[in-house]
Write a structure and sequence with these properties.
By secondary structure, the chain is α+β, with helices and mostly antiparallel strands. The chain is built from twelve helices and five strands. It has a five-stranded mixed beta sheet, with helices on both faces. Helix 11 links the parallel strand 4 and strand 5. Helix 1 packs across helix 2 and helix 8 packs across helix 9. It starts with 9 loop residues before the first helix and ends with a helix.
């Protein structure tokens, strides 16, 4: 179980905190630090086991009394060393011990083999029957080959175990770079990708970003519940991931805001992809599985901006964000580029 949080931005964290506090008030749960940690994780959507446990309690109208609250915290939230890290450490320790044994055995076998062959050579100088010497030498070589085969098999087995550990560490690293609700890259992965993309863009290669926000998402959540809202957000994330190119990065920026970074794409190319995303989302038909109810169509507003050599990445994001909010102010369900910011300023 991974009980860690991604490092969210202020607006997103404040939104989650507000939802947590409102629900705690409705359930008459004391706003203690431990209780708040439980409900913050619940609404952050990053802990399926915790969500399932709370949903089950709610479905059966169970009260969230102090004992229940403490149990939720101890079971799902209380800080603890990652099971992956503990398992990896133990397995690496075992492998290191096995490697030392293998090396010690190999050294000892080589030493004994050299002694045996040396003895055979000494017997040859003493005039011992050559046939007996050949037989003895063949025997020693056969024994050496058997020991080598056994060592090789042992090394192969430990190599496979090391591959499993390497895969486990790789998956753990991937989880640390992924937003748990949407499956997109998180802010940590986004920042790393932007730094690398900026380094290339400084040499003149184009770099553009698009940022999208779901229109009237708060109203949608209020009307249909945050569970349905989370499903819609996952759907938006899937559309974004499917529409950008393989070399691009799609990430969750905060709340219902998603972002895509497009290396080697100028403003026009990025705007074209943004428009494809907008149309695809507008064409989505969302049905609530539990009731078959067809939900209102969802639309998104999208801002697009291109990197300018020498500027800070924060300036690029800020310009893209302003284009996004110009799209919202202009009626929503549209794509606005940074060029329209200049026109809006000129128009007063």
């Amino acid at each position: 179980m991974d009980s860690s949080f991604d490092d969210p931005d202020y607006d997103y964290a404040a939104s989650i905190a507000g939802r947590a506090m409102r629900c705690m008030a409705e359930q008459r749960i004391a706003p203690t630090p431990t209780n708040f940690a439980v409900w913050f994780q619940y609404f952050a959507g990053g802990h399926d086991d915790l969500r399932n446990a709370i949903d089950l309690l709610m479905d059966h109208n169970r009260p969230f009394d102090p004992r229940t609250n403490q149990g939720l915290f101890r079971t799902y939230v209380a800080p603890q060393v990652s099971a992956v890290a503990v398992d990896t450490s133990e397995r690496l320790h075992t492998l290191m011990g096995a490697a030392k044994e293998f090396l010690a055995t190999a050294i000892a076998d080589n030493h004994s083999q050299m002694q045996a062959i040396s003895q055979v050579a000494d017997q040859g100088k003493a005039g011992v029957d050559p046939k007996a010497l050949v037989a003895q030498l063949m025997n020693e070589l056969a024994r050496a080959a058997t020991r080598a085969t056994r060592l090789e098999a042992g090394f192969a087995e430990k190599t496979r175990e090391l591959d499993v550990i390497r895969h486990s560490l790789s998956r753990s690293e991937e989880r640390a770079r992924t937003d748990t609700l949407t499956g997109l890259a998180n802010r940590r992965a986004l920042d790393e990708f932007l730094r690398k993309a900026q380094a290339t863009a400084e040499w003149g290669e184009p770099l553009s970003v698009l940022m999208l926000d779901i229109d009237h998402f708060k109203t949608f959540n209020d009307n249909f519940g945050h569970g349905v809202g989370d499903q819609v957000l996952r759907l938006m994330a899937k559309v974004l991931r499917d529409k950008v190119r393989e070399q691009d990065l799609s990430a969750r920026y905060g709340g219902e805001e998603l972002i895509a970074v497009l290396p080697d794409a100028n403003l026009a190319a990025c705007a074209e992809i943004a428009e494809c995303i907008r149309r695809a989302i507008a064409d989505c038909r969302i049905t609530r599985r539990s009731t078959g109810e067809v939900l209102p169509n969802i639309s998104v507003s999208i801002g697009v901006a291109q990197y300018r050599v020498g500027e800070a990445i924060s300036d690029l994001i800020e310009r893209c964000d302003r284009a996004l909010y110009l799209a919202k102010g202009g009626g929503r369900n549209r794509v606005v580029t940074e060029n329209e910011l200049d026109r809006a300023i000129a128009a007063g």
